[in-house]
UniProtKB/TrEMBL annotation:
Intracellular or extracellular location(s): Cell membrane
Residue ranges crossing the lipid bilayer per the database entry: 12-36, 48-68, 75-94, 100-122, 175-196, 223-241, 247-266, 287-305, 311-330, 381-401
UniProt-recorded name of the protein: OFA family oxalate/formate antiporter-like MFS transporter
InterPro entries for the chain: MFS, MFS_trans_sf, Proton-linked_MCT
Keyword RNA-binding found: no
Originating organism: Trichococcus patagoniensis
Membrane topology: Multi-pass membrane protein
């Protein structure tokens, strides 16, 4: 019984506290319009704060892996300080009407806090839940996905009433909101930091790389395949998810807020369901074959039915739900897959380097769909683009990453 309690109090609960905090970076869509209006800058310029945050998230995770590996407590504390101070700093620079300041705080500082915070609890979870690694990481990463669902109504309440034209009645509430959230999330993340602890029976083994460098893993074909597959899944997901509101408006569907909540639930559910199901499979890579297969099927059916131009709302909504579930499932299934291929000892380092794919996808996904719409004005062309990328990802997963029987638990990093 005590071991069960420890699993939750020393791994799952702190992971949820940390991930439910940093996941609010995705509430940017609720804030960007008000920020642009308050500081008097064009929305496309302000949008770069979010792209920068996702880029810094992925890159900080890539370079902080060794810090997390060495000391999870130091890492989780750094994450709490960076994220909360970035949140407070964003409020300050909104008040000062400084876009550069917002880039440095929301984009860089919060992004670093997100990256280190995302990585910090993952290895600990898998150590406590040795036989259910997918379930464990699914719980934490689902918290990251649910953060927007939980925080959105709170943010709307704190922002207060709006005028008939959608502007805020009291614009000063915007920067005050960031101060309030900074305090609340620091408390949550600090509690998570205090609770987080590896199992007493885990003995860290220091391995030598035989003269190799950490980045030498990018010479490993298995890792390259996983990196590209992961990058394509995020790029495709962001390309469609970023256009969700405009796409629904284009087909004349009115209940956009309801569908946004529905797709967010599918995003979070996919994170838990896909990775937990992976625990039952001999080769966890099979989960990605399912994710890409379902995504290809949903996209192809929508194109064959000309669902966008024919305004077939149920089909479009179904597609958005499928893509969101696969997008979330791709994140939660990654750490257990890497643990199976490369072992647990350096999983934080390897996972962090794999998350660099998120950094580049964060820059390319949104911009890809925005470019296609600007040049062609066709949502179908976005679907054709992501269909092609999903097909490449499916090929990588199905034919290049299938593990041999002796590789299903661990694939050596250095060759």
């Amino acid at each position: 019984m005590n071991n069960i309690e420890n699993k939750w109090m020393r791994a799952a609960v702190p992971a949820l506290l940390i991930h439910c905090s940093i996941g609010t970076v995705y509430c940017w869509s609720l804030l960007k319009g008000g920020i642009a209006e308050y500081i008097g800058r064009p929305l496309p310029e302000v949008e770069w704060a979010f792209s920068l945050a996702i880029f810094c998230l992925g890159m900080s995770a890539a370079f902080a892996g060794k810090i997390v590996e060495k000391d999870i407590h130091k890492a989780s504390l750094i994450a709490a300080v960076c994220f909360a101070s970035g949140m407070a700093g964003t409020g300050f620079f909104i008040q000062q009407k400084s876009l550069i300041g917002i880039f440095l705080t929301y984009g860089v500082l919060m992004g670093i806090g997100c990256g280190i915070g995302y990585l910090s609890p993952v290895k600990t979870l898998m150590l406590w839940f040795k036989d259910n690694k997918g379930l464990a990481t699914g719980i934490a990463v689902a918290g990251f996905g649910l953060a927007k669902v939980i925080a959105s109504p709170i943010i709307q309440t704190l922002l207060g009433a709006t005028n008939a034209d959608g502007t805020m009645v009291d614009p000063t509430r915007l920067y005050k909101l960031f101060y309030i959230l900074a305090v609340a999330y620091f408390i949550m993340m600090f509690i998570g930091h205090l609770l987080l602890k590896k199992p007493a029976d885990w003995v860290e083994v220091t391995t030598k790389t035989e003269g190799g460098h950490t980045l030498d893993i990018f010479k490993n074909r298995t890792f390259i395949g996983i990196w590209v597959m992961f990058y394509l899944n995020i790029t495709c997901g962001l390309a469609l998810i970023s256009q969700e509101k405009d796409l629904l408006h284009f087909i004349g569907f009115g209940a956009i807020a309801t569908i946004s909540s529905l797709t967010a639930i599918f995003n979070a559910s996919g994170r838990l369901a896909f990775s937990a199901f992976g625990d039952r499979l001999k080769d966890r890579n099979t989960i990605y074959i399912w994710i890409f297969g379902l995504s290809i099927a949903g996209t192809a059916i929508t194109l064959l039915a000309n669902g966008v131009n024919n305004a077939i709302a149920p089909l479009i909504i179904l597609l958005l739900c499928v893509i969101n579930a696969g997008y979330g499932g791709g994140f939660s299934s990654l750490p257990p897959l890497l643990a199976d291929r490369f072992g647990m000892n350096t999983i934080s380092t390897v996972h962090g380097l794999a998350l660099s794919a998120w950094a580049f996808a964060g820059l390319s996904g949104n911009q890809l769909s925005a470019f296609i719409i600007a040049k062609t004005g066709s949502y179908n062309n976005i679907l054709y683009a992501i269909l092609a990328m999903y097909a490449v990802a499916f090929f990588i997963s199905a034919f290049l990453l299938r593990a041999k029987p002796d590789e299903k638990r661990r694939h050596p990093v250095h060759h």
